[in-house]
Each structure stands twice: as C-alpha cells, then as structure tokens.
Amino acid sequence: MSLKQVYWWKNGVQMDHSYITDGAGARNTLPITVGYSDNNAVYRCQVSSRVLPQPLTAQVQFTVYFPPAYVNITGHEMMVNSGTTLTLHCKSANSNPSASISWYTGGQQVGSSPDVVVPAPNGGFITSQNLTITTAQMNNVDYMCQATNLELYEYANAVATVSVMCKFLGCFFVCGRNG
What is the CATH number of domain 4-61? Predict the structure, then answer.
C-alpha cells in the first residue's frame, strides 16, 4: 500500500481507483458527463493514508435539471361518432423540475384539467393531464400535447388524430367542413 490513496465513489459504489502520487501528496480527478441519471446522486472522494487514523471524505449531491424526452397521448385509438365525448390523456417522460402540460388544436391552446405530478424513481417527475373533448362533424382533428420544463425552456410534444366517423344519409356521406 502506498502512503496515500484517493478513490471516487458514486452512491456507495467505487467508481475509480486510479490515483497519482508524488512526493507531496496524491490526487485523483474524475471526469464525468452529467446526465439525468445523476440527479440526486452522491459523489464522494475518499483519501486514505497510513498516517491517518481513518479515511478523510468529502461528498456532494447533484441536482440535475432535464427536460422530458417525450410525451405519450392515449384515448384516441378508436374511431368515434360525431358528438361523442372523449378524454385524451397525455403523460410526459421524466423531467426535473416537473413539466407543465398544454394542449393545442388548430394552432390554438385549448383548456384542460390540472397537471398531475408524481415523483419518478431517480428524483425527477412525471406529469400527466387529461383533455376532455366533444367531437364535431369533422373526419379528423389533430390535438397536440406539449410538456415543457419551464426552468430550461425545453419541451417535448406529440400529436394525436381523433378520427370521427361520417354519417351516411341516403346516397351520400356527411362529414362536415373537413370531409
């Protein structure tokens, strides 16, 4: 064992044991690329020496901000009749801090329910929100859900197409303006 040793740990698991010694001391530089999995991670540097009664340690806990990588929309999978009430559900991927969800159709923001935010396993948050609509006499209407991390001004979005069945009236179909 050399006179001095310097080790790095992440969440209690040793990451690096390569250190450099010279006549005056020892050092170990740990290069890292921080990602969302480092949120709430504890990095600890530990120095051991034959002349120390116990190792010296210093540690830091990371808080990492990251946007949602994607959003999913459900509730639009089936074709529906005109006048049907339908609830679309949007769920964001993990984000820190939590994302805020907005809905749009035809380039205009539409009203929706409040965000529901639940903690994710690595310290971020998953946000979901519902949008309840009543279908009109149009054969296809697009709804976009956008989840935005307001701290980073970054977002993810997805578009769902609600398909409305046309009505058969005698010898022709009636689909409304877009039909």
Answer: 2.60.40.10
Q: In a 3-state reduction of DSSP, which class is residue 146?
A: strand
Least confident of 108-112, 142-146, 165-169: 165-169
* pLDDT for 168: 56
Residue count of the chain, please give it: 179
Domain(s) labelled CATH 2.60.40.10 in the chain stretch across 4-61, 71-174
| Residue whose entry in the numeric block shows the structure tokens 């005109």 | 82
The residue written with tokens 């990095």 in the block is 43
Neighbours of 24 (CB within 10 A): 7
Separation of alpha carbons 103 and 83, rounded Å: 20
- Report pLDDT digits (tens) over 30-75: 889 998 889 889 999 998 888 888 989 999 999 999 999 999 999 9
Cis? peptide before 97, omega within 30° of 0: yes
CATH 2.60.40.650 fits 71-174, yes or no: no
Task: Decide if 105 contacts 132 (C-beta within 8 A).
Answer: no
